[in-house]
Amino acid sequence: MKSIVVIPARMAATRLPGKPLADIAGMPMILRVWKQALAADVGPVVVAGGDSEIIDVVRAAGGTAVRTDPDLPSGSDRVYAGIESFDFGGAYEAVVNLQGDLPAIDPACIRATVKALEESGADIATAAAPIEDPADFNNPAVVKPIVSWNEAGTMGRALYFTRARAPSGDGPLFHHIGIYAFRRAALAKFVLLKPSALELRERLEQLRALEAGMSIVVARVDEAPLSIDTPDDLAKARKTLGHT
């Protein structure tokens, strides 16, 4: 299965405007994500940028970037617009939507997500890691997938995603990671779906796919990377990555 990584990015953000070009230890965040995607070596990496500033930075670094409408409603819509522009002929069968705010994502996580898609036959693959900090059990910013894991506990079928603490009872809880590998046809179907009731209630786009009967497989990885959503997250990333 030929795969490609598409990183959606736009300058407008409610909590952290200009986030893709935020400097982290001398490098714009979008370039850090791009470099991690290249290191995964699962296929070409394309940035789907909604703004000329993003396009210029990526191309100046030697990367590939395509311009997309800045008013597209979601990252998935931007990824679809980007892949249709870059690969209109449909050469790539798997499209990885890698969020542009994961500057320290482990390349192994990207590889594991693509592998899960290839091995499962699911429409979509994503990733999750065990939650280590009990403070995150009830943190709504930490999305929890409810997964029917295989016997080895390495991969499983997603039953639901929630911002609440779930499932109840004893056992580990998991932190969902913002990466999706779509089969090309599944991505085309997904972007035509209207936002669903549970998606709007939880503010989680992946619930749209589940409500529409699409299947999502989850790959288990060791650790969830820091997602940059707020100024505090950015400060933490600058401190951490400044020493790597």
Short description:
This protein has 244 residues and is of the alpha/beta class. It has helices at 29-40, 52-60, 75-86, 107-120, 184-190, 197-202, 206-211, 231-241; strands at 3-9, 23-24, 27-28, 45-49, 64-67, 94-98, 124-130, 144-149, 155-162, 174-183, 216-220. The chain has one domain: Spore Coat Polysaccharide Biosynthesis Protein SpsA, Chain A.
Write the layout of secondary structure elements.
Layout: E1 3-9, E2 23-24, E3 27-28, H1 29-40, E4 45-49, H2 52-60, E5 64-67, H3 75-86, E6 94-98, H4 107-120, E7 124-130, E8 144-149, E9 155-162, E10 174-183, H5 184-190, H6 197-202, H7 206-211, E11 216-220, H8 231-241
Parallel strand pairs: 1-4, 1-6, 4-5, 7-11
Antiparallel strand pairs: 2-3, 6-10, 7-10, 8-9, 9-11
Structure description:
By secondary structure, the chain is an alpha/beta fold. It is 32% helix and 25% strand. It has eight helices and eleven strands. The protein is globular. The model has no long low-confidence stretch (mean pLDDT 95).
Q: Can you give keywords for this protein?
A:
244 residues, alpha/beta, Spore Coat Polysaccharide Biosynthesis Protein SpsA, Chain A, two-stranded antiparallel ribbon, 8 helices, 32% helix
